[in-house]
Design goal:
The chain has 386 residues and is an alpha/beta fold. Helices cover 37% and strands 21% of the residues. Strand 9 and strand 10 form a beta hairpin.
């Protein structure tokens, strides 16, 4: 496997950087502002800016405030996935911006963004356009995803009837300003800055000879863990499992998935083999976050499978990327691995990041009545080898 050249391409490799030095801190602040229900200003490559507010937490007062800063009526940015399930048939591009007649309200914007809110589209006339790949609307949606919110934002261009010093404007109105290029590059830049923050011996019930190594980016953002069992030889392919965190499965023992079994089974199998590594990535819900995963569960109770429920929310079936895993292995000194996985896309993703996957080691567990559909969807729509 490691000798084959992969056609897989990381999403973030070719995206534009801002004209100034990349600032992870500016993006961190913008993420925090969105999560706290505040607006942010996003400066595009052309120097112009728009003001954006996540659809979550939107109310009419905030809506009116955005209108005051704008040249016109705010529009709603959603993903092409969400547009498709709404029947808007926008198949090209990543982001679609919407205006409505009657004009958008906070209530309408929330209903369009959230499939769990009742929406009668027959009473609304919707006009849409496909946003450019790297424009500020696209950056706004990327920012909502980084914030683990629904991928939808109310956006409005800042007034352009007079020249604006955006830095001064940001300070006067106490609205965070961030460059679109920094948003697009954030995940990759944060991953490149990962360093080993701590390393401790942690005996486990199934593997007493275990160390846990914590990785942290320089901006103090999302941390990942490596569970190192025994003493893997860096000169040989190391048995490796890459596990995305799953609070419901790993901690609560949820029967809706097989994550808990995969986690504990991997530790047991690695211990039985003598040594290996489990990388525990902070990518809950295949990268959409715990709250959105619970929303997807609610949709599944209405009959949607795991892929369709993600798309109903406006996400891709899988929002993860595997550069953090590659960086962690690099910092630990391992280049070749025998990967415990049933997911061929995980192999492609790792090889695209420079990790040589020597062999695939199957990692299957029996189903139960609660996760049969979940596992069937993995096989039929996710190409998992189960």
């Amino acid at each position: 496997m490691g000798d084959k050249k992969s056609k897989f391409k990381l999403n973030l490799l070719d995206e534009p950087k801002s004209s100034s030095l990349l600032s992870l801190i500016d993006v961190d602040r913008a993420i925090s502002e969105l999560r706290q229900g505040r607006s942010v200003a996003i400066r595009g490559a052309n120097g112009k800016a728009l003001i954006a507010h996540a659809s979550e937490g939107l109310n009419q007062e905030i809506f009116q405030k955005l209108t005051q800063f704008s040249d016109g009526t705010p529009s709603l940015a959603i993903t092409a996935r969400r547009a498709a399930v709404l029947g808007l048939n926008q198949s090209k591009g990543k982001i679609v911006t919407l205006t409505t007649d009657p004009p958008l309200t906070a209530e309408t914007a929330i209903a369009i963004a959230n499939p769990l809110v009742d929406l009668n589209l027959q009473q609304i006339s919707i006009s849409s356009r496909i946003a450019q790949f790297f424009d500020s609307e696209n950056a706004a949606i990327t920012l909502t995803k980084l914030a683990r919110l629904l991928p939808s934002a109310l956006t409005a261009p800042l007034n352009s009837h007079e020249p604006l010093d955006l830095g001064d404007w940001s300070l006067r109105h106490k609205i965070a300003l961030v460059n679109a290029g920094d948003i697009f590059q954030y995940e990759r830049a944060a991953t490149e800055s990962l360093y080993i923050a701590s390393d401790a011996r942690v005996p486990l019930a199934a593997a007493e000879n275990t160390r846990v190594v914590a990785f942290r980016p320089h901006d103090g953002g999302i941390e990942h863990l490596a569970i190192i069992i025994g003493s893997p030889d860096p000169k040989k392919p190391v048995l490796t499992r890459i596990h995305s965190e799953c609070f419901t499965g790993d901690i609560l023992g949820s029967l809706r998935c097989d994550c808990g079994e995969q986690l504990r089974g991997a530790i047991t199998k690695i211990s039985a083999r003598g040594s290996g590594i489990l990388l525990y990535l902070a990518q809950e819900g295949r990268g959409i976050g715990l709250v959105n995963k619970l929303r997807a569960y609610s949709l599944q109770d209405f009959g949607f499978d795991t892929v369709d429920s993600n798309e109903q929310l406006g996400f891709e079936a899988d929002e993860r990327f595997f550069f953090p895993a590659a960086r962690m292995l690099q910092l630990l000194g391992y280049k070749r691995i025998n990967l415990m996985t049933n997911n061929p896309k995980k192999i492609l993703g790792l090889e695209a990041c420079g990790v040589q996957v020597v062999t695939r080691v199957a990692h299957k567990f029996a189903s139960n009545k609660h996760n049969e559909k979940y596992l069937r969807t993995k096989a039929q729509r996710g190409d998992h080898l189960i």
